[in-house]
Amino acid sequence: MNKSELSDTDKAFFEDGLRLADTIVDTLDEIKLWQATRQEQDAMEGLIDALSEEARKHNVTIDCRKGCSWCCHQPIFGVAHEFHYLWQFIQLNMSDDEQKEVLQNAFNNYQKRGRLSQAELEKSKLPCPLLKNGACSAYAARPMACRIYLSMSEASCKQYHDHPEDEKNYPALLEFPLRAGQMMNEGFTEGLKKQAISNNEYLMEEGILIAHNNGESIEKDKLNTHPLFKEL
């Protein structure tokens, strides 16, 4: 990424992510990383709330709500620090049987999506491993990509879900949060490089499986040995 080509707004969100990572890189362990990830997510939630309120003032409808899950069937990507936090949340908030169900769902999805070409992947529709009864079972810890996906038309999301082959169709999304979230994650990733940690990008199902790490633990102060963060 050429930072000189970024807009002032892009740079601001990139720097926000970078500063957040910089606060933990000198003494990085998994607890500090979880705390920083939560701070990043809270910051984005604050922005989303402000944007939603502003949209209402201008009679712009945001149709996203619990029970609407059209977007939860398309490929979802996140980065390593998000999956590291997500799996910790799952362990703390789900029973053993619920965790096994999530892992099985992730495995089943990855068996199908892991073999697809990029073009096929983009059109694939499978329920997210975390989707349960029409809602996210780990909503509080969902990755950035899920947080910044704000639609102004549920009908456009349904159309995109039902007809992925239609290249002219795309959900009516708010652009600003999409870009803001991307830039914040880019900055966070840049900051982690100072600790020789690769904040790799993964499909949701792949990220969950790698975060689980076959149930094996990693020393909390040796994150760069975790499979999620190994240089690809």
Q: How would you characterize this protein structure?
A:
- The protein is mainly α and 232 residues long.
- The chain has one domain.
- Strands 1-4 form a two-stranded antiparallel ribbon.
- Helix 3 packs across helix 9.
- The longest helix is centred in the first third of the chain and has 28 residues.
- The protein is globular.
- The two termini are 18 Å apart.
- 32% of the residues are buried.
- The mean pLDDT is 93.
* Overall mean confidence score, pLDDT: 93
Low-pLDDT residue intervals, each spanning 5 or more residues: none
Report the sheet-strand fraction.
under 5%
How far apart the termini lie comes to 18 Å
Secondary structure: elements and pairs:
Layout: H1 8-22, H2 30-57, E1 77-79, H3 80-93, H4 96-113, H5 118-123, E2 131-132, E3 135-136, H6 144-147, H7 154-162, H8 175-192, E4 201-203, H9 204-212
Antiparallel strand pairs: 1-4, 2-3
Helix pairs in contact: 1-8, 2-3, 2-8, 3-9, 4-9
Task: Please supply descriptive tags for the structure shown above.
4 strands; two-stranded antiparallel ribbon; mainly alpha; 232 residues; two-stranded antiparallel sheet
Write a brief caption for the model:
The protein has 232 residues and is mainly α.
